[in-house]
Amino acid sequence: MANGDGVTVRLTIPARAEYITLGRLALTGIGRLRELSDELLADLKLALTEAASNSVRHAYGEDNAGVVEISYLLLPDRLVIEVIDEGAGFDPEASEGSPNELSEGGLGIAIIRAIADRVEIGARPEGKGSRLRFEKGLS
C-alpha cells in the first residue's frame, strides 16, 4: 500500500514464536528495496524479533490465542516498524527491570531503544492491547 512517499507492508501472524521468522523474512525483502547494509538489516531484525517476542510472550497468556500485527512503513529516509497485539498490554517501565539487575528477559526494550532512533510504546489507539513502534534512519 502506498503512503505518500512511502510504502506500507502489513503482516498478521499467529501469536506463536515460530511465526516471528515470517516477520524477519518480510523485513529482509523490504531491506532489499533500499539495499540496506547487512549490519543495519541484522540490527533491525534483532529489534523486530524483540518487539514481536514481547507480544508473543506477554499478550495472550500461555494459550497464545491471538495475533500479532507487524507493519513496515518504508520512507525515503527511514523505516518505521510497528508491532501491535490485542492482548493484556504491559508496562514498559516494569518490563525493563532495574538498571543494576540483569534477569532473563526484560532486555528486549533496552535492545530496541539502543538500535532505533525513536521508540514509542503504549496501548493500542483502538483499545485493548499493546503497540510498539520504532524508527530507524536509512541515510
What would you say this structure looks like, in words?
This protein has 4 helices and 6 strands. With about 140 residues, the chain is α+β, with helices and mostly antiparallel strands. The protein has a single domain, classed as Histidine kinase-like ATPase, C-terminal domain (Heat Shock Protein 90), CATH 3.30.565. Helix 1 packs antiparallel against helix 2 and helix 2 (about 40-60) runs antiparallel to helix 4 (about 110-115). The longest helix has 21 residues, at about 40-60.
Overview features:
139 residues; 35% helix
Low-confidence stretches: 95-104
Which homologous superfamily in CATH is the superfamily?
Histidine kinase-like ATPase, C-terminal domain
Widest sheet, order of strands = 1-2-3-4-6-5
Gross CATH architecture: 2-Layer Sandwich
The description of the largest β-sheet is: 6 strands, antiparallel
Q: How confident is the prediction overall: mean pLDDT?
A: 86
CA-based gyration radius: 15 Å
- In CATH, the topology is named Heat Shock Protein 90
| Percentage of residues in helical conformation | 25-40%
Using DSSP, what is the number of strands?
6
Helix/strand order, N-terminal first: EEHHEEHHEE
In DSSP terms (H or I, runs of 4 or more residues), the helix count works out at 4
Structural class: alpha+beta
Instruction: Provide the β-strand percentage band.
Output: 25-35%
Question: Oligomeric state of the chains?
Answer: single chain
Shape: globular
Tell me the domain tally: 1
Q: Assign the CATH class.
A: Alpha Beta
Distance between the termini: 23 Å
